[in-house]
Amino acid sequence: MGGSFFNRILVPSSSADPCSRACRVALLICCCLSVLVESSLGSKTRHFKWEVEYMYWSPDCVEGVVLGINGQFPGPTIRARAGDIVNVELKNKLTTEGVVIHWHGIRQQGTPWADGTASISQCVINPGETFVYRFKVERAGTYFYHGHYGMQRSAGLYGSLIVDVAKGEKEPFHYDGEFDILLSDWWHESVHEQELGLSSKPFRWIGEPQTLLMNGRGQYNCSLAAHYSNSSSSQCMFRGNEQCAPQILRVIPNKIYRLRVTSSTSLASLNLQISNHKMVLVEADGNYLQPFAVDDMDIYSGESYSVLFTTDQNPSNNYWVSVSVRGRKPNTTQALTMLNYHNTTSASKPPPSPPPVAPLWNNYTHSKLFTKKVLALMGNPNPPPTTHHRRIILLNTQNYIDGYTKWAINNISLVLPATPYLGSIKYNLNNAFDHKTPPANFPSNYDVMKQAQNPNSTYGSGVYMLSFNTTVDIILQNANALAVNTSEIHPWHLHGHDFWVLGYGEGKFSNENDEKSFNLKNPPYRNTAVVFPFGWTALRFVANNPGVWAFHCHIEPHLHMGMGVVFAEGVRRLGKIPNEVLTCGLTGKMFLNNKND
Amino acid sequence: MGGSFFNRILVPSSSADPCSRACRVALLICCCLSVLVESSLGSKTRHFKWEVEYMYWSPDCVEGVVLGINGQFPGPTIRARAGDIVNVELKNKLTTEGVVIHWHGIRQQGTPWADGTASISQCVINPGETFVYRFKVERAGTYFYHGHYGMQRSAGLYGSLIVDVAKGEKEPFHYDGEFDILLSDWWHESVHEQELGLSSKPFRWIGEPQTLLMNGRGQYNCSLAAHYSNSSSSQCMFRGNEQCAPQILRVIPNKIYRLRVTSSTSLASLNLQISNHKMVLVEADGNYLQPFAVDDMDIYSGESYSVLFTTDQNPSNNYWVSVSVRGRKPNTTQALTMLNYHNTTSASKPPPSPPPVAPLWNNYTHSKLFTKKVLALMGNPNPPPTTHHRRIILLNTQNYIDGYTKWAINNISLVLPATPYLGSIKYNLNNAFDHKTPPANFPSNYDVMKQAQNPNSTYGSGVYMLSFNTTVDIILQNANALAVNTSEIHPWHLHGHDFWVLGYGEGKFSNENDEKSFNLKNPPYRNTAVVFPFGWTALRFVANNPGVWAFHCHIEPHLHMGMGVVFAEGVRRLGKIPNEVLTCGLTGKMFLNNKND
Questions:
Q1: Which residues 29-88 in chain B show a CB within 8 A of chain A?
Q2: pLDDT tens digits for B578-596?
Q3: What's the CATH code, domain A179-373?
Q4: What pLDDT score was predicted for residue B21?
Q5: What is the ipTM of this complex?
Q6: B255 with B276: CB under 8 angstroms?
Q7: Same fold, A8-165 and A390-593
Q8: Under an 8 A CB cutoff, do B150 and A195 touch?
Q9: Is B242 buried (19+), middle (13-18) or exposed (0-12) by CB count in 10 A?
Q10: Do residues A549 and A497 lie in contact, with contact meaning Cβ atoms separated by under 8 Å?
Q11: Where are the domains of chain B?
Q12: CATH superfamily to which A8-165 belongs
């Protein structure tokens, strides 16, 4: 090869002492941003000082605008140990937009106001203002953080959050090195225009992403594998310092590596492969899995996994790491980078064969097979064996409301109020949101296989009030969308809890029959679960975390179009909610009127 | 002609009973939005209910995104009588951006919190929230309103505000009909990107506007006069219902019409002509002028004028109404519409000759000649004849600060704080802004004719504290910008007051000599005054309006780059400031901490 075509190296961290190594790297990068304060108990407070602003950036070799943190895209990685306190002082440097950050997968026990959900857990941070997120990371695992206001996540406001096991603790598996890959999708149209199109009549869909990104890097107008294809795309040539140059995974032979994979995609469901290398899944959303090996793995928006792979292949070759779209007719080229046995092979040598071909986008059998292999490792907390205390069935439909295209749950399309629920529920502000409880089921004669006909769909801001400490079963029921023979993938994410995924099924959920199939032995425990087209997914969780929690489709445009619900539990048990999270809307007015405090 | 090429008609309102006619029309348009409540004194409260949101729109026949009000662009016209109360209930329907509206030219005596300036008079209205602007329009005149947060004015957030004389009062001139024309300029790049470019290193200038708009209508990819030019632009063909179809001024012969012209441009200084028709200027910024006749008139951003013209030309022809760029090398086609003698000539007949040619863009002699003709009508309030009580000299320079391109006043580039000054001054919040008084002069050896060399420029948020009821003289001193032999036009606008324009001069202002040339007899009384390249402009006003008031260059990117100062006077005299304008920043925190109220 003339010039090297990818030579940006991602250096693994060693697992022998995962934190000391990883944290040293993290500290080198953001030396003056992260300060460690060790407590007498061994847990630390990790201080970060962040500024959010728009920046010109070329995530896919085409210049656009991203929402960055401290001049970085994606934002800086947070690395901590289980039991640590994370303290992020977040300054909004945007000119006219508010901002919040959600810590995806962190349960915020005792700190529901730090969940970073606009209109739910806090008022947004206004331009020029600073807010301190302070919360405990109680459990080791692979997490991420992202904007949760408007579609700011789609604009690039995200980053990794990795929690290592507490000092003296061990993971239930061995590995020699680690890579973190945060996956996302990228559009050339600005997020402001995307939001407008989705809210317009006639509706304008955002379309498929222009590019898939790995750690914020992708290639739109060139390909790393152009020499193999008969396409017109040209071969990418990188010096290595380009914002879109791929990060190469640099390994040495006969070692075990842990790959932490997280998906912050706005829309795309993804499939990941490393050519010639088996992957063994060991963690999902911060919970250990019964290890299982695959050639390719699916990952939906909001999910995270740890996979182990062994560098047992011919070390004089390089190997493709490839990410492709699933569940939507792909219009986006696969994302590529390379596994490089760096002491034997040059990083500029292209792999000997073309990138792996992904499973067919609509091969749902393949996807379901994978998803059903995801099971908890023995010893994980088990679901309460008793009968559930409450069952809520949530029908997911696409709807027209006044001619606007929306998503609705049991015929209600979520519109978030100006006052955060956490405050309006705590202080009994009756006008802050719809006080009628949203329906917990849908008409029994609804045909989930036929085109949506929901003339009575409405907007709503109601809340499912959950009795504290009860067990709640959720059935997510998919259905045909507005177009004929169409039903989409929806990965649902629950804030403030993990849930057990009791099962997946086809067609309409049946109380009598389907409940029998629930896996109560080793269901995966996680915060995000996919609902397959025309199918249902059954979840169980314990409402034991005082606060108000979003539960929503993690596809950003779907949430923007109303695809979510809100749960509240034990809000009265909360001590004082920090006033500064409630300075807006009716709670703000309440403070002004001095009726409380 | 085949199809009619412009047939959208602007119907004049009659002056015989200007309000009854005009208001009936206004009411017809926004019937359910505007409600009149008559008081026992004859003055009325005029109620408006507005929602601000982004909309797809084609202001210049190219689709883009505008900030609209109630689905209209420009926003609805407010029409009231002197002495009325205007009550606008403004709902922010944006997803992530705050919003405010400034009522340009309305002095807000007794209601400084209704001035609609983010960070100065109020906290922004957050998404989903509603704020009520309520203020008195004490004086007849031609005004407008616009966004005053980030660059939301450039995004299209503006509209007309016309105040007729009180019942029983008469204007000092006669007219038979009226047209209102709000001028603006339009870019195809989104305002979010414009803001980012201006704040980036390296600096990215917004460039010249793609199109000039009259009442929000212009033509980018076609011309109304293509058949006269040898350009490649095609002839515009309109059905008439296009968003970019020009509004034709429909007149009948031998009448006098009042044309109210307002400029809300982001950047462009403009020149307006009506071919073959003399224009007589009679009002500027709500104050009557000594009438004078011109063939063409200049108008700078932030200014408004009323001109009279008589329909005394051949009624079997149509005539061009034309608007062109001044003071910057024009890269933007002139805006065109037509004067149509409608009972004798078809509106689709093109004028017999090409559109008028504007004065050369850099013919400043022509501009100064026009500007110096603008003098107050006898009987207008005169400036206090005594010596000024305080003189503040404001040097306008272009600067680099940490490599960022900025504008600065006496070496300080304005950065607005998160807490509105109105609250932080009233409640003595010392950390809310810079408490050092900004300089009232610049070094005497500064050479205004040479390239700016200001290595010590800084950001600042200081305030000029004015003693209540004192007379203040302001000298706006222009200078060479960063490029050699370059000095730009800056139209400065003062909130909360009108000022007398005492004079204009060349080069550096000299206390000894130039003061003698001040016009104390009939200086124009207005709220916006231009500073010519390499020149100075002298203003006088009385600091008799308790509040905090912006004084800034009305060129939107210049203000965004720091070209403004802040005055405060008599804040302690204010009674209670409505709490809801102070719910953000340190005043918000103060309310939370319950130390006041």
A1: 54-56, 65
A2: 988 999 999 988 887 754 3
A3: 2.60.40.420
A4: 42
A5: 0.92
A6: no
A7: yes
A8: no
A9: middle
A10: yes
A11: 13-170, 179-373, 390-593
A12: Cupredoxins -  blue copper proteins (2.60.40.420)
